[in-house]
Write a structure and sequence with these properties.
Its cofactor is FAD. The chain is α/β, with parallel strands linked by helices. It has helices at residues 17-28, 70-76, 104-111, 117-127, 137-162, 200-207, 221-224, 239-242, 288-292, 319-332, 343-346, 352-368, and strands at residues 10-13, 33-37, 49-50, 56-57, 66-67, 82-84, 89-93, 96-100, 192-196, 213-217, 232-235, 252-262, 273-275, 284-287, 299-307, 314-315, 338-340.
Length: 370
Amino acid sequence: MSTSPSSPDFLVVGAGFAGSVCARQLADAGHRVLVIDKRPHIGGNAYDCLDEHGVLIHPYGPHIFHTNSKLVFEYLSRFTDWRFYEHRVLAKVGDQLLPIPINRTTLNKLYGLTLSEEEAQAYIERVREPRAPLKTSEDVVLNSVGSDLCEKFFRGYTRKQWGLDLSELSAGVAARIPTRTNDDDRYFSDSFQFMPAQGYTRMFEAMLDHPLISVQTGQDFESVREVYTSARLIYTGPIDSYFKQCFGPLPYRSLRFAHEHLDQDSSFQAVGTVNYPNDHAFTRITEFKHLTGQKAKGTSIVREYPQDEGDPYYPVPRPESEALFKRYEALAEQETQVTFVGRLAQYRYYNMDQIVAAALKASDDILKRP
């Protein structure tokens, strides 16, 4: 990564997936690119590093890569080798740890049953409470699994995660979680489920390692906003911040991460993540060595505490939030020299592969312009 060019063709704000992919695509096409990020590192929320005990951790919570897109997987494979990893999650309900998403094993252990797959399907069909139309997340969950499973697995978790009841959230939130009647206990069912073999940061370093790409970390956009006025802008930050919150701030939910190292050789928990839908103020605990496969002394975990204040992580999916975003989006469409791409710029809860796909498309669109 070279020093800062005096007159880049493109200024990319944000060195996460959206910004880094755009930067690499534009540099590969022969353009000089300056990437800035207000944090002291690249990689955005996917940044990983060794903690003081030598364990590879994700400071901003677990990032598990999964995709059905061969295009996205092959693109990222240019910059990393992979470690096969299928994420599994358990939920603590009472004294039991049960597979989530709900599957046949969940039902049998929870209720002391011996259902076959067909019987599990019939059970779900019997307890579900049909709702139409599906306007809220409560509608989605009740329509899918009924009230008892809703209370045990979803309502409390949602209240902690969003500070809102299921009935106050748009339907799309709960639609992300499937229900199964077989014994598949994988959290994701995507075709490609891998982790970067040397970690995410190493992958970002390789992506940004190009003679036409310069990177400045610890650099806030506002401090250079009027410096590179001739450069075309790729903006991946919060869209409301770009417009100085002229319509008011878009609502986000944030997280506080409580990292802990345990001086023990055995695993802290049986799987990568355990959810706590009904107990404690935190939503889940993740143990990183499950994700990374690292062999190191001791083990490191993180607890996640959702909160209103702090870095913006999750757009709050409510109709009024979307209406406010649409006002900012209308302003963005008038900015002919700016491309808005990524979670914060598009006010969408994208998975990592979706951000890569959006950045590849945005780059292609830019390069097609005269």
